[in-house]
Amino acid sequence: MSTRILLTGGAGYIASHTWLALQAAGFDVVGVDNFSNSSPEVLNRLARLSGQTPMFERADVCDAVAMNAVFERHRPDAVVHFAAFKAVGESTSQPLSYYRNNLGGLVNICETMTRFDCKRMVFSSSATVYGVPEKLPLREDAALSAVNPYGATKLMGETILRDLGAADPAWQTAALRYFNPVGAHASGLIGEDPRGTPNNLMPYVAQVAVGRRERLQVFGDDYDTPDGTGVRDYIHVVDLAEGHVAALRFLLDGKESITANIGTGRGYSVLDLVKAYEAASGRSVPYDIVPRRAGDVAACYADPQLARERLGWQARHDIKQMCEDSWRWQSMNPQGFV
Ligand code: NAD
Ligand code: WQD
Q1: Which of 62, 142, 239, 268 to pair with 262, CA 20 to 30 A apart?
Q2: Is the CB of 18 under 6 A from ligand 1?
Q3: Which atom belonging to ligand 2 lies closest to the Cα atom of 297?
Q4: Model pTM score
Q5: What angle is formed at CA 159 by the lines to CA 314 and CA 307, rounded to 5 degrees?
Q6: Are 81 and 112 in contact (CB under 8 A)?
């Protein structure tokens, strides 16, 4: 029997790509989602891409009774816990809903896992745990801080898993600190479909390119970076998905717990990304320079050496492929998953 992996938040952007990567690697996958930030249409697309009906449960990860029933039915061997709210600005105006969903959900899943003696988890952490970077590239042993409630939930999430491992060595966890996930599956059938106005750069640029929005606002051109605009480590979502396969293999091989950056190690500016997107799409992306966005840092990029050495994983896609795949998804689905 093959190893069964439960993906919480399974219909989401990163989870849907990870679902395909796990199936391709021979794992059985079960998804759980309450569609608070995703569409059931994702499941139809996954069925088309994989040739099989996805095993899926509609449920809230904060619901203890529902999670118990999911574990009873599917008996997963390990969990990848994606389910969370992720909008930084919204977390500042609605902190309690972020603490409840992101931390309540994590604690509930961990309690359910303990009851079913399932003690391997890959956790979606974030480069946001580095707060304002002191030194670049960021290594995993850099200073950590939370600069908004969303970041606090990721920092606390890592702490919860570390404490669980200290209390019971049977727990093996991988906290993956994602940098800036972008791009889409090469088929163009799944991709990022933000609700309302996109908060993040690539989906905003994509919507300008496809004609859904008029102009991009570039948040500041007076940073201490080569062209003055913010620099980030964009990582193709398919590479990120493969990072989860590598982390699960690491845990299932009985290795210890790990906390690892998942990035490329290369930084690109906002204007670099706009130019790359224009080239990939053949569309122009008009923009205005506006004041800096509160809470943004000048530059943030990973040292990805630990993941390479310990997980045997490294990013393979470049910025051109990230933009081309994003554009294929955006142009094939101009209104997202309707
Ligand atoms: P997403 O919103 O597309 O996916 C999250 C999924 O979880 C959604 O389908 C949502 O409906 C579901 N969900 C949320 N709360 C739930 C609940 N209580 N019960 C059941 N399902 C629930 O986001 P994503 O970009 O795919 O992010 C996945 C994970 O990665 C999140 O934990 C996020 O914080 C983390 N992360 C994302 C980024 C990024 O920039 N996208 C960067 C670093 C970390
Ligand atoms: C990238 C660059 C902006 C939008 C966020 C979260 C982080 C992680 C990833 C979850 C910056 C600039 C953006 C726009 C712009 N998520 N920008 N105009 O802020 O690096 O990270 O997503 O864990 O926690 O904070 O990503 O895509 O929002 O911004 O000029 O309309 O693009 O200023 O320099 P960020 P982003």
Answers
A1: 62
A2: no
A3: 34
A4: 0.99
A5: 10
A6: no
